[in-house]
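Quick one: structure tokens for this chain, please?
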Amino acid sequence: METLIKIVDENGGYAIIPELHVPLLSKCQQSHVRALTNPEPNREIAFVVHRNFVRERLLNILADAVRTVIPPGMINKRLIKFSIKL
């Protein structure tokens, strides 16, 4: 990621970087960041398990770990009400 950003800094142009990386940019670099719109990009995280999977506690621990690293502003408000607690 850093190499791509340095190339753009030195040569100009555009690069698509993950939103989670934006806070790591300098203030000058952040001033050049533009959001993608129409359609707005999104990503879904899904846990797919066999129907006989019995380790519900493990799924909940994993889901809680994922939630801790996703900034609240990036979580779809409509989906917050749904939980994995089985």
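The first helix runs from residue 2 to 11.
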